[in-house]
Design goal:
Helix content is 19%, strand content 34%. With 64 residues, the protein is of the alpha+beta class. It has one domain (18-62). A 4-stranded antiparallel sheet has the order 1-2-3-4.
């Protein structure tokens, strides 16, 4: 499988304050746009559960 390109949220705009995500070999990878040296990898089902928590506001206190 050829790795797909990194994607970022449209809410990030053109700035450096964003996290990018892509799918490679059945895994989901995340990295910071401005420092891509560290990549976090997980399986799609765990990532989906994390996104459910984000959508539900469970992590909002980290952005305050």
């Amino acid at each position: 499988m050829i790795p797909s390109g990194w994607k970022r949220s449209s809410f990030s705009g053109s700035g450096d304050n964003c996290v990018e995500v892509r799918s490679v070999d059945g895994l989901v990878e995340l990295r910071e746009f401005d420092d891509g040296g560290i990549i976090v990898r997980t399986i799609p089902t765990k990532f989906a559960k994390f996104l459910q928590g984000v959508k539900a506001g469970e992590f909002d206190h980290f952005t305050a």
